[in-house]
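Supplementary Methods. Inverse-folding protocol.

Structures were first reduced to a discrete structure-token string of length 97. This string, shown here, constituted the complete conditioning input.
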């Protein structure tokens, strides 16, 4: 879906009130896992979440949060790993999940 098509399908002013338009756009392309989770949380109440995700999949977005999902190298992933090497032994919280 192109931006022009998207804009003509929704009432004037709706796009300006979307959660992704009310915060710094860098949040949706953050390095920090906490910031990525915050961006995903903003998408939860968005009325255009499904359309945003479908558009990102169609465009094959390489990275960022789109429609409440995280894209890394063009694929949807559950969560962003922190930088650095993974732990040798998982924390008790990670074992339970």
């Amino acid at each position: 879906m192109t931006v022009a098509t998207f804009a003509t399908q929704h009432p004037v002013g709706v796009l300006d009130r979307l959660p992704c338009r009310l915060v710094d756009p860098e949040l949706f392309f953050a390095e920090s896992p906490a910031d990525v989770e915050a961006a995903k949380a903003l998408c939860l109440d968005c009325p255009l979440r499904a359309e945003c995700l479908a558009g990102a999949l169609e465009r094959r977005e390489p990275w960022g949060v789109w429609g409440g999902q995280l894209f890394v190298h063009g694929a949807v992933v559950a969560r962003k790993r922190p930088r650095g090497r993974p732990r040798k032994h998982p924390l008790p919280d990670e074992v339970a999940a």
